[in-house]
Amino acid sequence: MSPSLTLLNVLHVPKISCNLISVSRIIHDCKCIATITFAGFEFQDPCSGKMIGNAKEVDGLYHLVSENSSDEQVQKPRCLTTLSCENDIMLWHYRLGHPSFNYLKYLFPNLFKNKDISSFCCEVCELAKHHRSVYPSLKYMPSKPFSLVHSDIWGPSRVKIASGSKWFITFIDDYTRVTWIYLLKEKSEAANVFKNFHSLINTRFHTNIQALRTDNGREYFNAILGDFLKEKGIIHHASCVDTPQQNGVVRGKIGIY
Ligand SMILES: [Zn+2]
Are residues 66 and 115 in the same domain? Predict the structure, then answer.
């Protein structure tokens, strides 16, 4: 194709794998003559009759031929080559488990010739590798025994113990960090277990639990436990969704005393 031939009304289609030229458009815009033969396609200047471009048929498509190519190899348009390399880079990025583009360049230097690494962007990486901002840790407020009790439920365990239990519920006193663990056959037993724990504290320590801190587990939000907490004047603190840090005492610092 003649390098002086200017194509007008070019549309950019992101990620298209090849460049397409409309024959009717090029004839109108460049005022040239197009001739189709069994050998291919030719564009001629109408005044001089000089051939300004030609194309060879490959698999039913006419591919433009380079003007300078002596062996008449079908030329891949430059833009097509670039797109193909970018597609390959992204393909290897996905295949290898989303490594950094710097590392990909180390593995495939040929694909990155004349490429700016910063121009590559993977949406999956952007979303998956985002860092969350640091969660501010609350200053510990000294309390007194059983003014605040943390609770969480773990399970189900893949292996049932002999009694048939596969869950356990923990109660941690915020002041002393003493931990009680009860085994459960079903999560729904949580409300009754808390009642038993409350009675235990009343009897043994002659005091009342003032607040219960849990996550948003449904087992803590049933009518049985809700009514019991109201009756005893116990405040229920529930952490926000997806913020285990707010329930950090039972999440990360379980110690059995
Ligand atoms: Zn990625």
Answer: no
